[in-house]
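Retry 2 of 3 after timeout on previous attempt. Resubmitting structure tokens to design endpoint.
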């Protein structure tokens, strides 16, 4: 078991609408809610965050901006395409899931794929 919890942002319809509307490519293809939620980013957080819904919310209130920008950047790296970011919009665009049980089934060292050698 790992001494972390997993936090996921499950997209809601307004976020998917923005993804489709903001596509700068001519004739860009649309994505669906199911497609967007089929492969989510997992954010590792401390065990304490998953202790209660109140702790999850407290953590979100302290970290929503970085999460929001990370998700937006995953769609469009040009910040001029991004909407105004507020906690209210974050809540309108994402459901937050927190999972406290992470089990490492490999037993080998965890490595950062992006770390410099």
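Retry 2 succeeded. Sequence:
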């Amino acid at each position: 078991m790992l001494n972390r919890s997993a936090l996921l942002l499950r997209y809601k319809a307004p976020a998917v609408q923005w993804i489709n509307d903001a596509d700068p490519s001519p004739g860009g293809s649309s994505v669906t809610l199911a497609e967007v939620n089929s492969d989510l980013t997992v954010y590792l957080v401390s065990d304490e965050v998953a202790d209660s819904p109140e702790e999850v919310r407290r953590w979100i209130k302290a970290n929503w901006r970085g999460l929001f920008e990370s998700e937006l950047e995953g769609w469009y790296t040009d910040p001029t395409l991004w909407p105004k970011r507020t906690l209210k919009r974050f809540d309108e665009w994402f459901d937050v899931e927190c999972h406290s049980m992470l089990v490492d089934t490999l037993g080998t060292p965890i490595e950062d794929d992006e770390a410099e050698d």
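Attempt log closed. The chain has a mean pLDDT of 91.
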